[in-house]
Amino acid sequence: MSWQEEEALPSVPAPRVGDEPELLPAAQAGDAQAAHRLGKFYAQYGDRASARHWWERAAAGGNVDSAYNLGIWHEKHGNLDDAVTWYEAAASTGDAEAATNLGLLLLEQRGDAGAARVWFESAATAGSRTAARRLALMCEEAGELGAAREWHRRAAFGGDAASAHDLGFLAYCAGDEAEALRWWECAAREGHAESAYCLGLILHASRDPEGAEAYYRLAARNEHLGAASRLGGVALSRGDLRTARAWFEQAAGGGRAYDLRMAGFVCVELGDTAAASHWFGRAAAGGDAESAFDYGLLLIAEFGDLAGGQHWFRQAAQAGHHAAAVELGGLLSVAGELGEAQEWLSDPPPPSWGRPAEPELTARAELAAAATGRRGEAELKVADLAEVLSTWDLMTRPLHDHSNVLAWLVERSGAHASAVEHLASVRGALVRPGSAPWPSPGELQHVLVTARDLRWRLGIR
Q1: 70 and which of 25, 86, 90, 408 could share a cystine (Cβ 3.0–4.6 Å)?
Q2: What does the pLDDT look like over 265-306, one tens digit per residue?
């Protein structure tokens, strides 16, 4: 609440034109409420110097609202020491908004987290949901998860959807999916699109695609691009290419390479090569190797543009795309550029893992990635997490009894038992949150090496 927007207490009605002659004598005589109202009168008509003068007179007479307004006035004009003084004067009487503003100033302008926390606690206890949320975030950063949950609850019960969303993630990370669903539902009812999307993901991961779709639609109505992308995948799985195109093109507005590429793919299937060229071209220009390869194929097959195809094959090959290197080598051979052709054909980049993961597994991977990147930490890549989950799923599908899966995999692959056990442990942390800590980025890369080695040993392509 700013001093321009402050709602007057019933005992201090807002001043009106014509009140000044009545207020001035009373204020001059030491009436703090009259001085406060006179300050508001001058503020409303742009005379801030006079407003400050009368608020100082009112605050000296004990008017808390004037002290609060002076804190805002001085903070806005960069006088932080004076702002702190006046905020403290108001906050020390129990004014929650003054305590909240004081905490924010101390934290954001002075970096004094300890003092800020004291004032946030005072404000939150007095009912400020803003202070409760900021206090919850500070507790999360300090690893005080129990206290964080309590302050988030206070903020959420006060109507803060962001804290309800955070409570959902705290519950999910602790392995309590029922509690996560409850909080995400609360936040989604308040219009929190990310919570609706997370509900869709958790239902999808639990193999409830119909329930997931309903929440994806709710999130997409609030312009959540990830939800639009998911709905594109749902439509594509049903063979509804036109609906899939609409959703992927909406998602592509966010510039994510996957959505741009999928919009291009659906346009190819619909025979709209001009639109496909647009989407593939955007993704390729952004550095996506798979889209550069697809764009090269499209230019050659649909437009007869060999030079353009060669250009994009080279871009993709230089980024490590195996098929692009082979195609580039073939084009160069036909063009008589045998030296460079031989370079690409004799030593192309190794094939990458191109098999798409099941939607249930990518949903679980997205939740894990979001959980690990919530507070500025290194967010794990969804594609890497999905590759780990998909590799395990493909390797263990032949088994009807999973009670001795580790020994079976070691015997069948010839890999070292400790490597297989580590892969199983990381996979377990992803599918059963709370059972083990989330993997670090370095640990995930190590596990990916194991997963790729096992696929090679088992002949999974």
Answers
A1: 86
A2: 999 999 999 999 999 999 999 999 999 999 999 999 999 999
In angstroms, the CA 339 to CA 361 distance is: 44
Phi-psi region of 428 (alpha: psi -120 to 50; beta: other; left: phi over 0): alpha
First vs last Cα of the chain: how many Å apart?
61
| Rounded (5°) CA angle 363-367-368 | 115
- pTM of the full structure: 0.85
Taking the C-alpha atoms of residue 71 and residue 406, their distance in angstroms, rounded to an integer, is 64
Would you say 133 and 147 are in contact if contact means Cβ atoms under 8 Å apart?
Answer: no
Two structure tokens written together for 238: 């049903």
SS3 annotation, the chain? CCCCCCCCCCCCCCCCCCCHHHHHHHHHCCCHHHHHHHHHHHHHCCCHHHHHHHHHHHHHCCCHHHHHHHHHHHHHCCCHHHHHHHHHHHHCCCCHHHHHHHHHHHHHCCCCHHHHHHHHHHHHHCCCHHHHHHHHHHHHHCCCHHHHHHHHHHHHHCCCHHHHHHHHHHHHHCCCHHHHHHHHHHHHHCCCHHHHHHHHHHHHHCCCHHHHHHHHHHHHHCCCHHHHHHHHHHHHHCCCHHHHHHHHHHHHCCCCHHHHHHHHHHHHHCCCHHHHHHHHHHHHHCCCHHHHHHHHHHHHHHHCCHHHHHHHHHHHHHCCCHHHHHHHHHHHHHCCCHHHHHHHHHCCCCCCCCCCCCHHHHHHHHHHHHHHCCCCCCCCCHHHHHHHHHHHHHHHCCCCCCCCHHHHHHHHHCCCHHHHHHHHHHHHHHHCCCCCCCCCHHHHHHHHHHHHHHHHHHCCC
Q: Does the structure show a pLDDT above 70 at 16?
A: no
Residue 13 confidence (pLDDT) above 80 = no
- Reported as a single tens digit per residue, the pLDDT across 391-414 is 999 999 888 887 899 999 999 999
Amino acid at 10: P
pLDDT exceeds cutoff 60 at 1: no
Is 290:323 a contact under the CB 8 Å cutoff? Answer: no
Residue 346 main-chain phi, psi, to 5 deg: -80, -30
Q: Quick check: 450 and 419 in contact, CB under 8 A?
A: yes
Rounded Cα distance between 300 and 308, Å, is 8
